[in-house]
């Protein structure tokens, strides 16, 4: 028999400490001989990223951390290589951004030289080419940022190509004659338009660089070579990121027509959404946001076969070797698994690693996609995580926490999230809004944010809130809203432009897009051109869209969290909004964290912020939370 109890005050076994300890993040994998390596970021070890072997466990000694700062968001920051019969680990060290070499569990030694005084050099996306490592280099010199493709050997760095501002996914053909890569220029972002370029390799240099695919309004991703020097890649030319091929004469073929996404936004470099197998068949990922699938494609017959799996979402980091393929996935009941696929049968052969939940699964909600209608009739998509506890039922309508994802070119899937479970097991329903501009729903939906950031996003949030209130499932007086980065921007705009929210939580949110345009990192420095307008020509729009401009309209209590080392959204943004809260006398809290950047990685910060947020909600809604 369930006991009726006021939502918010339910006792949950999921403490903030358990939440932080369950927050290990795994991503990239590589087949290394008869072994498999992957990386793991651990909040319990001050957020460091280390490399793990299937056979031998941790390979990177503490306190070393493999984390590139290229684009500030990084990506794949390590590579297993073979030198003189030994398997070595090459990695980008977080502290100084130099590339180091080490034997597994050994003492790292630097491979790249220290940069000249006053300069910052960063590296990412390493590949092994003969006795050299080729990769992307990012240099910060006197306030200017440049990037190039480089070759590294014996502490020397040789530039291969510097004709573009942004690079990703360098790949050498199987015969060693060609190098291909993706590139783009300001003001485009990689989901707007990229090009696939190819060059001939001769004596360690590149010649005859040409464009094979892509353009200003075509986003190409994940190019990979076949054994016949044909290239398979993902393109959204059809309106959806689908599978294409192109040959060295730039003859393109749309292999699979599918109204679902086979790619995603290139926020982190190294994203691999497809892998070409030795027989030139292709493994990729496709499907709806709430039901993604691993798919095997025969490019000759164009036959597609989905992997039978209980997982419903997969990270873009597929690897393969020794007759097996590997992918990280999750579902509504599984935080994350690293699965092994037998390529002979295309069936799941084993589970390599599992992120075990810290509490029994009976406390978890069942997330599912819902659709809301705007007043103009357009659909808005969201993922609902209903309030759930096996021992309690609500004595009144449950509070609703609206989550706004960051990016804003990103999305959330219908998978188990411990942070959401922290709230749902205490009596809150959580809804994650994939507002217009989100990925996963085709290019047209993604482009809805063009010129409309600060309008479409918060209007879509309101549409979802109205739909859930009309359904009678939530208390209209107890709607809360939270989000980080671009999600924080939408949170602040929703709070200053509506009266629907009892309180809000902004994590390192954008408060002033005028200041952001003038003071942010290079990767996103022209992002606002497409989402708002050109700066400073359209400064009036920037002023109008900034939550800070309308901050005096704020009537809802607000809690603000900020990392003091954030280079994406500087602390001055949160501090400015805090100062307005002080000036107008609105209930608020401002909490900052030393040593944290854009997103909290340390267990102490995760614990502190989530407990402070829940306590703040309790003060506003009138319940005593069980921390």
CATH architecture of the domain at 3-16 and 394-435 and 452-621: 3-Layer(aba) Sandwich
Helix count? Answer: 10
Mean pLDDT comes to: 96
Spatial arrangement of strands, main beta sheet:
31-32-35-34-36-37-38-39
- Named CATH topology of the domain at 3-16 and 394-435 and 452-621: Rossmann fold
Distance between the termini: 24 Å
- Proportion of residues in β-strands: 35-45%
Net shape: globular
Poorly predicted regions are none
Structural class computed from helices and strand pairing: alpha+beta
Work out the radius of gyration: 24 Å
Helix content: 10-25%
What is the CATH homologous superfamily assignment of the domain at 3-16 and 394-435 and 452-621?
Answer: Alpha/Beta hydrolase fold, catalytic domain
Largest sheet: 8 strands, mixed
Total number of β-strand segments? 39
Class of the domain at 3-16 and 394-435 and 452-621, according to the CATH hierarchy?
Alpha Beta
